[in-house]
Write a structure and sequence with these properties.
The protein is of the alpha/beta class and 231 residues long. 24% of the residues lie in helices and 27% in strands. The protein has one domain: Spore Coat Polysaccharide Biosynthesis Protein SpsA, Chain A (Alpha-Beta Complex). The protein has helices at 37-48, 61-67, 87-95, 117-127, 193-197, 220-230; strands at residues 6-10, 52-57, 76-81, 103-108, 111-113, 131-138, 146-149, 155-159, 168-178, 205-210, 214-216. InterPro entries: Mannose-1P_guanyltransferase, NTP_transferase_dom, Nucleotide-diphossugar_trans.
Length: 231
Amino acid sequence: MLKTKEAIILVGGLGTRLSAVVNDRPKPMADFNGRPFLSFLLDYLQKSGVERVILSAGYKADYIKCHLGLIETNIMLTIVEENEPLGTGGAVKNALAQVQSESFFVLNGDSFCQCDLDLMEHHHQMSNAQITMLLTQVEDASAFGTVSLNGQGQLTAFEEKSPVKRQGLVNSGVYLFEKPITASFPRDNQFSLEHDFFPKVLSKTVGFTVNSPLYDIGTPASYRNACLKLG
């Protein structure tokens, strides 16, 4: 049974690349086979055993607040709004005051990779890690950048996106944090987890690798693919 009962979902991105499809709402509220994509993520978390979710909002946060009541869920929801774009790291930092537990999940609000969170949590605990990152293998890692691991499953490097099409292990946008590691966040309130934080805490971060496709709704093509495959 899942012991980690809280999660932060990052729902504040601008969604510039998806504007041709969705221009009146943030990406996580994009129509996903008749309901918001956020509703799909909340169902997944609820079935996994998560009981409380903090939505870290920014771009068009009012839209989320106005439409949240239409999402059917038993999860307790709290919205934290940023006054300016803070990046993925700043968005987590901005939501920390609402986190009540010593461990919590963080999810990107515009992607999904199927994972048994119980198993991820067990791996996290057995590894004595401060952060566990969900990883998956993709045929073309050029759009993501890749991650390297050592023999113990510890992260050793982040590699930037490459124009060369090749297989690779990629960050799937789901993390399990121990709250004390957030004391290592940069002083600046605006920063990226991927570029400004994770590379500095590699020795405290392990990967949990699954054999599941990574779906995102960041572009019109990937959005249509996610609707088709996950519908």
